[in-house]
Amino acid sequence: MDNFTSAATKILGERIRECRVNLGLSQEDVAHLAAMHVSNFGKIERGLANPSVHTLLRIASVLEIDPGVLIAGLSGDMVTKRPHKLTAAELIRARQS
Helix, strand, or coil here: 72? Predict the structure, then answer.
């Protein structure tokens, strides 16, 4: 997991926490079922850690939610330290000019 804070990680953590709370589960419950350490799960919920795809899929599976719901509406613009704002299409057009 990368240790950085961004709007995307904060929103993701809030969504995971909301799902967990709605199910009446503790952080320990979800962490155990997702085969991860509770401190790492807590960091994800607080938006202090960026989970790998595998970790996100395990958490979503435990919470019985489509992982797409957890990341819906998040974009690259919400991630810190993104050096380039070009899209692939814009880069291709620039190269063709």
Answer: coil
Q: Give the integer Cα–Cα distance in Å for 55 and 34.
A: 8
pTM across the whole model: 0.84
| Backbone region of residue 24 per phi and psi (left: phi > 0; alpha: psi in -120 to 50; beta: other values) | left
Q: Tens digit of pLDDT for each residue in 59-86? A: 999 999 999 999 999 988 888 676 777 7
- Residue among 27, 32, 69, 64 nearest 46 (CA): 27
**Spatial separation of the C-alpha atoms in residues 51 and 60, rounded to whole Å:** 12
Q: Which CATH architecture has domain 7-96?
A: Orthogonal Bundle (1.10)
> Which residues, in sequence order, are CB contacts of 67 under 8 Å at separation 6+?
56, 57, 60
